[in-house]
Fold these 2 entries.
Entry 1:
Amino acid sequence: MTETATRPAALGRYEVVIGLEVHAQLLTRSKMFCPCPADYINAAPNENTCPVCLGLPGVLPTINEKAVDFTVRTALALHCDIPPFTKFDRKNYFYPDLPKGYQISQYDLPLSLNGYLEFPVGGEAVRCGITRVHLEEDTGTMHHAGDVLQSATSSLIDLNRCGVPLMEIVGEPDLRTPEAAREYLVRLRQILTYIGVNDGNLEKGSFRCDANISLRTPGAQELGVKVEVKNMNSFRAVQRALESEIERQTGVLDSGGTLVQETRGWVEAQGRTISQRSKEQAHDYRYFPEPDLPPLRLDAAFVERVRATLPELPEARARRFQEQYGLTAYDAAVLTDTREEADTYEALVAAGVPAKLAANWQSGDVAALANEHHTPLQHSGLGSDGLASLLRLVEAGTINGPTAKELLAELYVAGGNPEALVRDRGLAQVSDTAELSALVDAAIAANPAAAADFRAGKQQALGQLMRAVKDATGGKADMPLVNRLLRDRLSEQ
Amino acid sequence: MTASTITQLAAALRDGSTTPRALLAGAIAHVDRTENDLNAYLAVTRELAEAQADAAAHTLEAHPETASPLCGIPMALKDVLCVNGVDTTAGSKILRGFKPPYTGTAVQRLFDAGAVCVGKTNCDEFAMGSSTENSAYGPVGNPWDIERVPGGSSGGSAATVAAGTVPFSLGTDTGGSIRQPAALTGVVGFKPTYGRVSRYGLIAFASSLDQIGPFTRTVEDCAMVYAAIAGHDPRDSTSDPRAVDDPLASLRAGVAGMRLGIPREYLGAGTEPGVRDAVEAAFRVLEGLGASLQEVSLPSTDVALSVYYIIAPAECSSNLARYDGVRFGVRVERPSLTEMYLQTRDAGFGNEVKRRVMLGTYALSSGYYDAYYRQAQKVRTLVSQEFDAVFKNVDAIVSPTSPSVAFPMGSRSDPLSMYMCDVVTLPANLAGTPGISVPCGFVDGLPVGLQVIAPRFEDSRVLRVAHAYEQATDFHAQLSPYATVAA
Amino acid sequence: MLARIGLSDAEKDRLLGELEAILEHIARLQQVDTSALAETAQVGDLVNVMRADVPEEPIGAAAALRNAPVSDGNYFVVGAIQGAELDG
Ligand SMILES: [Zn+2]
């Protein structure tokens, strides 16, 4: 028991072992094994189908080259090996959303093997192995009359999604906390969207996750009884489902019970998992090589060609941002969160906006506006070119900070040319020393009490004087200059 | 025009002595006269045929020189080949009423050439069988003796050519399903190299073995139909992109100087004496034409049957999973989904299909996969290697096509004895080589076939040997009683 | 059972008898020494047969549903799925 005692309390009496399986739809234009459009969401039911994805008698599959390319791209981003020989296999089972009665997938010779994903959790680096990344086809979708599966009298089948390229990323059971599991998914999604192979939408199901979780006595070599958890459609749901499952399994073990190997579904509304299928009902998928598709031999030249299309990955880009632009680790991470965000940042800098200024505005006011309007900068009225010219006006001292903020908010929605607007509305900052000196004198004259207080050592009294000058310029005064002029004048006597 | 060849009809169409409509009318009249006895057709596609005949007439008038030799020629298609909007049942109850929304590649190529589709022919259910007795729509009579089977599974396509209704038809060959019925009905039947003819639109039985090919009255006709349907198809990933050499160019080159091998195992104890005599006489004819014959050995022939009866059922168990009553075909309505699946498939499939689906499911299931499926895949390699070794010493193999002549209906109720029908044809499917059957004699009025097999992609060589033999004999010119029934 | 064919007991007995005989015949396969042999999943030497990612016009729901035994609007319809039937 000493071993247990020495472990961090948060881990409890058992060691948690979590492995994640992610299914990610690939952003190809056509389906995996037929040329139907892969966009299944915007089509009426069964509209995007053909004899091949309907599984009609006599049809044959053909491999979408882009899907292979995307899978290899993913595998390379996850540091996987790409074996020289790979093939497709049939996974046989009956279900109405699987028209052929088998799914074309990969069994013993997947497209890639042995990778890893590294990411920080609570300031500590975690490395999770990637067992394999393979390619398969998605199934159709089913709607159950009344939406309650168990009591439905019939089910409606839509095969638009059937045959959409699906990549399965199988992680090693290297994760030890629900938080790490969540972080793994956040990172994985970031990479997939970065390299442009997946849109990362958990809600719509283009990025799906199943978890395997078991508990064991700390230090034990073999794994405990494994439970598969499904139906989690947000990062938060994954974390909560795993927490709830740890609690449930701990309860069973503590009360001397035994766990059964099973599949459980997360029920968001109830905040718990419920049993769906026990091990006895597990399938015999009778995998065998797909006779309709010749195998793939991806030579080094192919792999290198794909590697050349890989963009700089988020981690490397964040490191470079710190070095090249002198950003803090935090700013660099925020600005490389998505590829679009990082591209915008570099576009601002390239357009002459100083690195620090660009970072502050992009991760501050711009991010807030994007959030508020649910519109990223690229799709806003302003655009990144507009933001660059606005920030150049700030940097040149043409407009002051508050004016820039107001303009930003307005142009974000309405669009327009910042330079023209500043000119037309006369928003340029007042920074003429003579003009401001006169206004400073007037402010002191109009607020003698405040001036006296300041002279007596009351620093806050300066605020009232500053406001007076600002108001006199309609908010356009160069405030740092006003501050200096006031102090100079008040210390003269 | 009954029992004419494509070559003869193509000439008649061009010299004005007939028209596509007249040929079609003759073919349909002949179907009407013979169908009661033969049951060779599952559907006569009159409307489609009339439209095609009219289009062909137009083409022949506008471009008589460049029109394909198949233009305006009536033909029939085995009912495992999909035609847009035309009932396609694969001889199964489960597909009753199924109208594919597309046309398969090989068929489309014939349509493009101007051939006229008279109808869909009867066959063993999902092409599983060697007698066409496994059709859900009744057996097919052999035009030489309607009490006997025409062979299978492409029995209807063989019988309709043997009955002189159409000069050519398409069948499919997974273990001998073109060659064996060709032999049993006295016509030419050719299985091209695997990968030469697109399988797109062919209702799959065993994907790694299936191949489409023609039935004709002569080898020359066979070469013409083959030339029309062969070639790469991007819709079939297993179709080969290599250019197809023109089989007509070398057709008349003869066999002088050719080395022909006779596999000892193909004339084993199961061979009927009459068949053996006919085939040995054919060997002497070939020798007389200048070929040198030698005995060769394919030691794994016997075990190849076992390989075939694991791989074909394994693939079919998966290929037939799509017949679930959901998107097409016949459904037995039940409140629960599982019951619907079970009852639909029980009612929809016949005995042989159930047997093979169960056998294949078993061979692939965990615990048996290594001993059955994997072992079969390895022995399949051995079968191919033995062919490769033999083809180092000979240019082609000659043998009987079937150990027996046409047998009486109902005489082979034991599945194993039926499986033995394919023992000398299925090795070519396992190895993917081309093979042909050409008429080589009769035993008590029943036809015997000579099989010729060559290395992969040597389809032209197969046709060349068969043609040389055919031209030296007149067995192909003898007509079945149904081909001589007067109008 | 994996093949998803609902057989009557009599049918089952007959089929199993036949399958046993077939399996017994096939068993001779086990005697072949295959230690030095690779597996043949398909004949030929084709590899890397792929198509470009270019969408084509689908056939549409009306054509897709034309052969359906039961359909409702744009959907295929099947009976209720009971708990144990989930995922097949
Ligand atoms: Zn499709």
Entry 2:
Amino acid sequence: MSQTPDVIVLGAGIVGAACARSCAQAGLSVLVLDRGPIGGGTTAAGMGHLVVMDDSEAQFALTSRSCQLWQELRAELPEDVEYDNCGTLWVAADDEEMAEVDRKARFYQERGVAVEILDAAGVASSEPELRPGLAGGLRVPADAVIYPPCAAAYLLADARRKGGRVEMDCNAGVAAIEGPGSVRLTSGRQIQGGIVVVAAGALTPLLVPGLPIKKRKGHLVITDRYPGFAHHQIVELGYLKSAHATQADSVAFNIQPRKTGQMLIGSSRQYNAEGTEVEPHLLGRMLKRAESYMPRIGQLSALRVWTGHRAATPDKLPIIGPVPGNDRTWIASGHEGLGITTSLATAEILVDRLMGRNPAIPAAPYDPARFEHAAKEPTHA
Amino acid sequence: MISPMPECDLLVVGAGPAGVAAATVAAERGRAVLLLDDTPWLGGQIWRGEQQKPTNAQAQTWLNRLARSGVRIIGEARMVGLEGPGRYVIETPDHHWTIQPKALVLATGARELFLPFPGWTLPGILGAGGLQTLVKTGWPIEGQRVVVAGSGPLLLAVAAGLKKAGANVVGLFEQASPASLARFGTQLIAHPDKIGQAFGLRRQLAGVPYKLGWWPVRAEGVNQVERLVLTSGRQTLTVDCDAVACGFGLVPSLELPTLLGCLLDGEAVAVDAGQQTSVQGIFAAGELTGIGGNDKALVEGQVASLTAIGEHAAVFPLHRSRNGWRNFARALGKTFKPRPELLKLAEPQTIVCRCEDVTYSQLSGYTSWRDAKLQTRCGMGPCQGRICGAATRQLFGWGMESVRPPVLAARVASLIPSDERI
Amino acid sequence: MPEPEVINVTVNGQRLSVPAGTVAASAVARAGLVGFRAPVRGGPARGPLCGMGICFECRIMINGQPQVRSCQVICREGMELRTDDLANA
Ligand SMILES: Cc1cc2nc3c(=O)[nH]c(=O)nc-3n(C[C@H](O)[C@H](O)[C@H](O)COP(=O)(O)OP(=O)(O)OC[C@H]3O[C@@H](n4cnc5c(N)ncnc54)[C@H](O)[C@@H]3O)c2cc1C
Ligand SMILES: Cc1cc2nc3c(=O)[nH]c(=O)nc-3n(C[C@H](O)[C@H](O)[C@H](O)COP(=O)(O)OP(=O)(O)OC[C@H]3O[C@@H](n4cnc5c(N)ncnc54)[C@H](O)[C@@H]3O)c2cc1C
Ligand code: FES
């Protein structure tokens, strides 16, 4: 970039790509730096489920706003983004989980999200591969699935196509943020920009020490093509009862039909697992869980297993905004298992705040300042 | 399922010449040995069918020794991954089980190198070794017009085999130049039996046009191959045919050793003088350590196995022969190295990744295998880059594709460890 | 008991006898078919390439199970082979 870029975005994952695009749309010049290919971090490892969630009002606001933005983009997404409006089916195994279906349904309906409650027969007929005897489920028809690495590439290309000033370097490992708006690369090169947006996913704390982001590892399995084996992204509600929400290693049944006809099977959650290796026993537990919901899943041909690290925060909400006391370093990270979904609304909030505009949804729940107290604590445990 | 053999002294994976030799010599010395192969057959690619129809004396000698040695043999069984340190997962058509051997010999061999050219995806165009293998198991070839093209000594053997099976071999085209073959010929003097083999094959191929320095540029046909266009750089030739047997030499199948953590040396598994890999207790023999044919495989299999079971005195006399075959392997690699013209055959619309139908033009502009893979799906299909990975290494100079479990597509159920099943 | 010399299978519903030891891929070819699998982005069907189980070009449906590599499966009495199933594409 001949001149000093207004914004340097660290990270070309889905979040960095979305931020770069929104900045460019606001007329800012952007330089995107990554040490590897576009979407090669956690964005290459995630499921790509675009899902409206209800854990908290703030989570709902961010996910629903984002899903709306994805729907607005839908018509122009190229084929390789594999946008598929398959919907979500939350399945209830028993009466207790069925009560959760009712609660969830009310929550969504009160906020204008279309849902459909299915009884046992309804679940069985809409997903015949599910085991018999499930209590019912909740269908959220507007939810969708994409292929994240191509979505990230598309967002960057789109910004440029529409006249945005975006440059990128995918061979630029960032060693540190040094001084206001300035980064030093691992090569030793120094780059000066207006502000720095850190969208380095689970690696963000390496660049901004003290942020309460922890790696949370997940496993996924992709199969050969079996069109029609599943029709919706199917997620069990059992994980609400199980350990999935706590600190221990946990697994939950989750299957996603890809547009290719492949099945993507998840998922596991683990803290204190820094390595990227596949862990056979956790993988086994995850697949056994899946098999307990879809008995014939064991016969499908598995092509590849991989892992990825989610960027988890204590309150399960991302961190979007300036570092307290340093208005030239901004954070867009901590999206845990929802960063594909929430990338677009994240970028919208970030740029609205940068430009002094009023964000479409309240920005306070995601503000880095909420951790200010925690951030001052020593980082070692 | 309960493991048919939860422990053993030596586990040998791959029942080609290297694996057969490795298993045999250990069992002959009283060790408990299990030999696995992905296929239902013994003998690997080269000796396939020898059990049913004996034709090769060397194969018979070894297969008889194997039969008498007391090796436990399980076919249609393949290693798909690890369940824990030294605990390997084996998949069979209906089950999977684990085994914890004292030592492991990998002898999983090689596959053919395929380089994309326009039309290469038409049915009827098979690998040279691929067609030969299928013909040994019932593929109808009698009376068919077959062109054999590509590179390497395998082409001669394949052409002879096809002819014997009743094919009308309409031409044999080796891309290596006459000059480099002549140089190779002088090196063969160190291996007189190889000369004998080559002359024997040429005799069997009397009447088959045999051209050096020719290579395929394009295949044509509607629903299957109807003709192959070849060139020598100066002239071109169109040959009508019903089938094409085409491979550009062999490349080691490195997925399993890579997944098990064995370090590589270029495009082969790195081994020490006793054939041990960088991982203690895991040995590699045969094509995995460098393409060199069955004699190299036989001696390496013995060295690996004898070292693995601690019979070091018996290894010593084999070193000379093993080193000789290693040199032969190096000469082989040089002689039949694909010429640069072969890397320019693909046109923009030519498919490079056959699983995901990714074309040559879609791949240009990416800087690495991973970048291209993530954006185009190249190498993401069921073969996980086994075909296109080797090709793109040649075409674009990209590094090796990364390996994740399972080693080769496996049933989802096989990824559930047995103790998680309870 | 000696192995039978001939095995009866069906290919897309048509009966076919093949010599014992024939693999499913060879049976399909013996039935006169050249295309085994529909490519994922259209175009003429594909047939076997590697003959050794690694290219996955020979996938067909065998006894109701889709995506099976036919070059690795020996024909057994009564085996049902299908290449005409579009879900298999
Ligand atoms: C198993 C699993 C399943 C998931 N499923 C879903 C789902 O269904 N739906 C959903 O919405 N989300 C899902 N997620 C979450 C989602 O994948 C992530 O939230 C999202 O990809 C985060 O994107 P990102 O851009 O923040 O991070 P990343 O994609 O990790 O991007 C960060 C980038 O920064 C670069 N970088 C980091 N440090 C440096 C440095 N020092 N110098 C240069 N570059 C650097 C990296 O190379 C990387 O490209 C899932 C995650 C996992 C692990
Ligand atoms: C929606 C979606 C669909 C996908 N569909 C497919 C598909 O159809 N087919 C397919 O093949 N892939 C598919 N992928 C996965 C993709 O190809 C990669 O596998 C994924 O990006 C991450 O995998 P990886 O860790 O294997 O990446 P790699 O490129 O292998 O490497 C990532 C990192 O992991 C490390 N690593 C690699 N192997 C190991 C190992 N054995 N042990 C420890 N570390 C290792 C590497 O060193 C590197 O740092 C899909 C991904 C997504 C998001
Ligand atoms: S022909 Fe390659 S897998 Fe069967």
